[in-house]
Amino acid sequence: MLTTVPRGTKDILPADIGAWRYLENTMRDICARFGYEEIRTPIFEHTELFQRGIGDTTDVVEKEMYTFTDRGERSLTLRPENTASVVRAYVEHKLYAENSPTKLFYIGPMFRYDRPQAGRYRQFHQFGVEALGAVGPNIDAEIIILAVTVLQSLGLKDLKLKINSVGCPKCRPEHRNRLQEFFKPKFNELCKDCQSRFDRNPLRILDCKVPHCGELSVGAPSLGECLCEECSSHFEKLKELLTSAGLTYEVDTNLVRGLDYYTRTAFEIQYTPLGAQSAVCGGGRYDGLVKEVGGPETPGIGFAMGMERILLALESQNLIPDTNFSTDVYAICTNEENFSLTFKTVIDLRREGLKAEFDFNGRSMKAQMKQANRYNAKYVLIFGEDEVKNGKVVLRDMLNSDQKEIDLKDITTILKAEVQNNE
User: Fold this and answer.
1) Does residue 274 or residue 96 have the better pLDDT?
2) In the chain, how many domains are there?
3) Over the stretch 122-132, which tens digit does the pLDDT of each residue have?
């Protein structure tokens, strides 16, 4: 239908933009404090980037991507996440030749064919942070602290930080063997997707959303039992750094995240009042992704937050500040002869940096005053017939209803001073 948005998408109307700007400004401010710079990547990429980067056994690649063939017979995909795109840009533009680590953040829309529900859409928005070029757990701790700082700065208090180590290519073969031994007797009970993952990537079985597969996974061998010395040391140091920064965390050995590129550190932040859909942030380390995309061997770590989910949390706790749009001055003119003067004055005020509006439809004085109230105008200029003949206009303060006559030539000077004094 032409008058409804596609399922899983949502219009962001002018009344909602203030909340989005508040959220984005908070994120940008904290990224600046931590030394992260913004990057913007294309909304679609070559499909292979996500197949190789995310992993062809993940739900994202197998079920959720919006993929199409363009007129040049190239397979392209609307980005389902942005880490792979950031890494592609990092390699293509040789950002690794600059100061290390490279610390980046992004804000933008992503696309996944998923079942729409509260705070989850098929076109959704993510804020994410990526740090490339630092190998130790120090950057892991900084990334996690940045994520927590953003959420706390927004006023969210009931946060639960979960961390885990998902090992590295050294430890995973042993864990893979143990998982296959564990699931082999249960193979026929697994869903078809997990049966196909049994040989390709049994770790993905632990991330299956089918409830029965989750029940079958209870008691499965954890990666923590198989960590090599380097991964174990990395994880212990991360816990030490988080504790020293005053963060409370829970080690969750079942936390594997939904993307194949993660190595060592994986983490998730939950906002418990949201209930079943409580995860508001997730991320981890991806030391092999840059090389997989075609760049030099480079460590990396990052996270992403679903912005709709965070706004839902803020709304539920009345944490979004008043962001109603207001205008500095509304110009009222009921005499057609004075309209050109009114129009010129509004344009001059805008050029001087003031937010100014006027009536387009020649309505009555009463109707225009109502319109001024809808615009939350701080002041009203009334171009009355008698006042204009005398080189004057009426300036009305909408907060206290005081009004006075001022000279036409002084409008800009007086209004700029009045608005500045009342900010």
Assistant:
1) 96
2) 2
3) 999 999 999 99
Residue 184 lies in a domain: no
Percent share of the chain, pLDDT over 70: 98
| Domain co-membership, 375 together with 249 | no
| Per-residue pLDDT at 199 exceeds 90 | no
Does residue 178 fall inside a structural domain? no
Q: pLDDT at position 158, please? A: 86
Among 141-145, 210-214, 312-316, the range of highest mean pLDDT? 141-145
What is the domain-level CATH number for residue 349? 3.40.50.800
Do 44 and 148 sit in the same domain of this protein? Answer: yes
Taking alpha carbons only, the member of 172, 356, 380, 383 closest to residue 261 is 172
Structure confidence by residue, pLDDT tens digits, 82-129 = 999 999 999 999 998 887 899 999 999 999 998 887 777 899 999 999
301 lies in the same domain as 410: no
> Does residue 168 register a pLDDT over 80?
yes
Domain assignment of residue 90, given as a range: 14-171+227-316
Chosen domain end from 316, 348, 380: 316
pLDDT at residue 403 greater than cutoff 70: yes
Residue that finishes a domain, picked among 284, 316, 348: 316
Residues 155 and 129 in one domain: yes
Residue 179 falls within a domain, yes or no?
no
